[in-house]
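Reagents: none. Just compute today. Small ribosomal subunit protein uS13.
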Amino acid sequence: MARIAGVNLPTNKRVIIALTYIHGIGRTTAIQIADKLGIDHTRRVQDLTDAEVVQIRETIDENHQVEGDLRRDTAMNIKRLMDLRSYRGLRHRNGLPVRGQRTHTNARTRKGKAKPIAGKKK
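Predicted 3D structure written out:
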């Protein structure tokens, strides 16, 4: 089992798909890493040699911000907005959509489960 950036990659998946299990690496970045190292896109993680796993690990460490560092950086950016009391920071603090979506209807993902209003009968 290959362990890269603190994440166990699934052994029976293709390398491109397995790399996307790492927070901060998507399909495009995974393809770029594989192309840079000359790894075939159809190869499975279980077929990789130890040297190739080390190469992937070093490439990710050098060129990409992933997992804990990326999560910490994102959290610090949100905290900075909230400390500045900017509009976006207030929306984060109140748990409302940040990017201009409507809230009259929808927005249930951010607002949570609907709360019934007592005594609202015909």
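The chain has a mean pLDDT of 92.
Action item: order primers for follow-up constructs.
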